[in-house]
Amino acid sequence: MIESRFISIRPPSEANSLLLPITYGCSNNKCIFCNYSLASAIRFQLRPMEDILADIDRVARSYAWSVDRVFLQDGDALAFSYAGLVQIVEQLNAKFPNLERIASYATPRDILRRSPEELERLRQLKLGILYMGVETGDEYLLKKIRKGVDRAEMVEAGIRVKGAGITLSATILLGLGGVVGSERHAQETARILTDIDPDFVGALTLMLEPGTAIHDEWRQGIFQPLSPFQYLEELKTIIAESDLSNCFFTSNHASNYLPLRVRLPSEKERALKLLDEVLARKDPNMLRPEFFRAL
User: Fold this and answer.
1) Whether the predicted pLDDT of 39 surpasses 80
2) How far is residue 50's CA from residue 129's CA, in Å, rounded to a whole number?
3) Contacts of 138 (CB under 8 A, 6+ apart)
4) CA-closest candidate to residue 241, choices 176, 146, 287, 172
């Protein structure tokens, strides 16, 4: 990891990647459940190109042959200009002979700023996977959480990534609709996943972080969070009602109550059988303890 004075974030699957910050923060920075901007205490900004290239050169001097994967930070590296992105990934390809894959978070809005041809060119330069926060397929909730796009735009962004030959990892957020909106959130999320058909899905569980708008709603009695087993009911609905062609589906993030790793659709029945068993028993000892959960 390249040293940064800001809080760094990355997907768990990028733990062994070189972390190269090219932006700080998130260009949307409005989602009511996210405390990243509060924790980092910064506004979204692009790093100067000369600093980025200098970091690449510095790492390459000692580790040129050791780096095979790079993750472009921070929460929204795809917000960088297309010309700038090309310059950065070309430099990475030039400096690291064993480079296999470059990855990045990407908001749906910034994906839609890139043409199919631009995305394909980035793939040719080894941009191999994008991590996109879908969160929900519920049109009402997408607006409420201030995601910045509607359902149709979310689907188009996902399809555009896959159409360029880039692997798509989608994140969804269990419990986002609270008790009142739980059923619709689960059903509509299953439907949007079917429409996008991502290569990976990571299901996280909502955590109410102090300072966020959704935490304020909870304190005011406006938002009623789900119980641990109600979160699993949502997870069951999403798995049961989604129709995915070849997707690795996980709920093994630290925020989740029940770790799950399955290939869909081939292991759908196994996943549903496990969830049925846990939901039938409702034994808290089968779940991750609350004090072990984290963002």
Assistant:
1) no
2) 25
3) 176, 177, 181, 184, 185, 188, 189
4) 172
- Listed in order, strand segments (DSSP E) in the chain are 18-21, 23-24, 45-46, 69-73, 101-105, 127-135, 167-174, 200-205, 247-250, 261-264
Of 190, 197, 215, 194, which is closest to residue 295 (Cα–Cα)? 215
Rg (CA), the chain: 19
- Per the structure block, which two tokens stand in for 252? 């093994």
Q: Which of 211, 206, 212 is CA-nearest to residue 189?
A: 206
Q: Tens digit of pLDDT for each residue in 70-83?
A: 999 887 888 899 99
Q: Which CATH entry fits the domain spanning 12-281: 3.20.20.70, 3.40.630.30, 3.40.50.720, 1.10.357.10?
A: 3.20.20.70
Phi-psi sector, 206: left (phi>0), alpha (psi -120 to 50), beta: beta
Q: pLDDT for 187-212, tens place per residue? A: 999 999 999 999 999 999 998 888 88
Segment 148-176, tens digit of pLDDT: 899 999 999 999 999 999 999 999 999 99
User: How far apart, in whole angstroms, are the C-alpha atoms of residue 291 and residue 171?
Assistant: 23
Going across the sheet that includes 247-250, the strands are 18-21, 69-73, 101-105, 127-135, 167-174, 200-205, 247-250, 261-264
What percentage of the chain has pLDDT greater than the value 90? 73
Q: What are phi and psi of 214, to 5 degrees?
A: -70, -30
* pLDDT score recorded for residue 95: 98
Looking up tokens 């910050």, which residue turns up? 21
> Does residue 17 contact residue 63 with C-beta atoms inside 8 Å?
no
| Stated pTM of the model | 0.92
In angstroms, rounded to a whole number, what is the distance separating the alpha carbons of residues 9 and 30? 17
